């Protein structure tokens, strides 16, 4: 569980008091503590809630102690994420029951999926807001803190999922000050057998390029230099808009935003990339040669069971074709082990596929049963012990691949974004090479005799290689 990085209270911009909202303890403005779990898309929803709460006159605090209200933004993608979300809620229930908190609000995917059950099982929660309801957060907090007494949990979850954010929706960026996520669409039209997300987020809804450029301009004006584009299905962007623009159009539009130096693409469903998209990676200077394409497996039989719509032949053609067309391309992917019906032969085919493609970055999940998905009723379950053993074997294989690729960087120079002092190495700074995405990839430990400021874009020479991280020294440029 992690709380969002918030501005220091004394530095928070003054907002006009919200109408009808009761004062905080001892006459001060009410304080709200936010916790957000799960993916980057969930994080952006939480950032909008932070902005809405701040605009309504609430102070945002990094600590639950002394807060008047706590908001837990939850995830329910897989079993481990659901348990983490429930544990996070329960952590604050005792405070709510004792009156140390005046409001406990649960938002996000777990609320969208289980609000009725949660309301019965965890009566300490005051309100539930789903994935399409988070813009009501200020209204809900005002109501709770104005009244002050505990009441029966109120389920405000909307099941008609049509909401789509706009550039003018308040937002507090919680990533490093020079980096931000840009969520370009909501929902998903795919029908993967293992995935509950379309039921929690709705069908594909793309934001317009004009709206996204406006938000990118606002982020750039605040000091952001790196945009990481995210969506449930990045490569589906635009198919539901007039004229059916594609990702290439959007990359070119965002590439023209002054101040944005890096544009990174995450969560790209493995579709065929047309010429307009591919050339955006080579023609637009800000667009990094970095692509996150979740392939999910390397066995044709399992991919068919998963309803992925691509076999390994098509995946191979897409991935190797991109490597051929985009110089220095860094490929990131995600796979699932232990899907129902996965045999030892299927798993060996996955290992062979990973060895062949040699992804620079790879994440792996152990399959999780999720009710209301087609795979939930599939036969031939893989035992938990076998799933774990396969996952460990896969990650050992990927660790060797990653280490070899990291060692190939020794002596080479790369652009690097400085993030600040390293929490692990007190004599070094920490940053990310252009090839390292925020939160999910490794980092670069920076050795420099010169003072550097968080947000600086510098050049480093790689001097040490580790399994996933590197160490580099500042290169003085003429």
Describe the fold and architecture.
The chain is of the alpha/beta class. It folds into three domains: 147 residues, Methylthiotransferase, N-terminal domain (Rossmann fold), CATH 3.40.50; 229 residues, Alpha-Beta Horseshoe (pyruvate-formate lyase- activating enzyme), CATH 3.80.30; 62 residues, OB fold (Dihydrolipoamide Acetyltransferase, E2P), CATH 2.40.50.140. The protein is 32% helix and 20% strand. The protein contains twelve helices and 19 strands. The strands form four sheets. Strands 2-1-3-4-5-6 form a six-stranded parallel beta sheet, sandwiched between helices. The protein has a six-stranded parallel beta sheet with strand order 7-10-11-12-13-14. α6 packs parallel to α7. The longest helix has 24 residues. The chain is globular, with a radius of gyration of 23 Å. It starts with 30 loop residues before the first strand and ends with a strand. About 4% of the residues have low confidence.
Residue fraction in strands: 15-25%
* Mass-distribution shape: globular
Helix content: 25-40%
Provide a count of the helices.
Answer: 12
Total domain modules: 3
How large is the radius of gyration?
23 Å
Structural class: alpha/beta
CATH superfamily of the largest domain: tm_1862 like domain
The main β sheet shows up as: 6 strands, parallel
How far from one another are the termini?
Answer: 45 Å
**Rounded mean pLDDT score:** 90
CATH topology of the largest domain: pyruvate-formate lyase- activating enzyme
């Amino acid at each position: 569980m992690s709380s969002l990085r918030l501005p220091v209270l004394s530095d928070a911009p003054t907002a006009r008091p919200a109408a009808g909202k009761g004062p905080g303890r001892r006459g001060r403005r009410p304080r709200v503590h936010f916790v957000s779990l799960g993916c980057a898309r969930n994080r952006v929803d939480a950032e909008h809630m932070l902005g809405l709460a701040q605009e309504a006159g609430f102070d945002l605090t990094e600590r639950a102690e002394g807060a008047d209200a706590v908001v837990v933004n939850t995830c329910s993608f897989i079993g481990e994420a659901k348990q983490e979300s429930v544990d996070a809620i329960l952590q604050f229930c005792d405070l709510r029951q004792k009156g140390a908190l005046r409001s406990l609000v649960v938002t996000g995917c777990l609320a969208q999926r289980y609000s009725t059950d949660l309301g019965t099982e965890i009566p300490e929660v005051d309100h539930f807001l789903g994935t399409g309801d988070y813009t009501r957060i200020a209204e809900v907090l005002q109501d709770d803190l104005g009244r002050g007494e505990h009441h029966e949990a109120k389920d405000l979850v909307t099941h008609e999922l049509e909401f789509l954010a706009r550039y003018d929706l308040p937002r507090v960026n919680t990533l490093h000050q020079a980096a931000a996520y840009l969520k370009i669409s909501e929902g998903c039209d795919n029908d993967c057998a293992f995935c509950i997300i379309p039921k929690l987020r709705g069908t594909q809804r793309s934001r317009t390029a004009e709206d996204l450029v406006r938000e990118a301009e606002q982020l750039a004006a605040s000091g952001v230099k790196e945009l990481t584009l995210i969506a449930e299905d990045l490569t589906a962007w635009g198919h539901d808009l007039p004229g059916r623009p594609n990702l290439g159009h959007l990359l070119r539009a965002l590439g023209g935003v002054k101040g944005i130096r890096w544009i990174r693409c995450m969560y790209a469903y493995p579709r065929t990339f047309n010429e307009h998209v591919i050339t955006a990676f080579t023609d637009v200077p800000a667009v990094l040669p970095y692509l996150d394409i979740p392939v999910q497996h390397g066995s044709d039989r399992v991919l068919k069971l998963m309803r992925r719509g691509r076999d390994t032949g098509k995946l191979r053609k897409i991935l190797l074709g991109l490597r051929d067309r985009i110089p220095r391309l860094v490929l990131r992917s995600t796979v699932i082990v232990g899907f129902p019906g996965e045999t030892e032969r299927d798993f060996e085919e996955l290992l062979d596929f990973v060895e062949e493609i040699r992804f620079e970055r790879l994440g792996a999940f152990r399959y999780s049963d999720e009710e209301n998905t087609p795979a939930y009723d599939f036969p031939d379950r893989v035992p938990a012990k076998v799933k774990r053993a396969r996952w460990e074997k896969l990650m050992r294989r990927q660790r060797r691949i990653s280490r070899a690729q990291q060692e190939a960087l020794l002596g080479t120079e790369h652009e690097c974004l400085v993030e600040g002092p390293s929490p692990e190495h007190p004599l070094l700074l920490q940053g990310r090479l252009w090839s390292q995405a925020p939160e999910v990839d490794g980092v670069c430990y920076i050795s420099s005799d010169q003072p550097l400021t968080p947000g600086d874009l510098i050049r480093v020479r790689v001097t040490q290689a580790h399994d996933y991280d590197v160490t580099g020294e500042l290169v003085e440029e003429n």
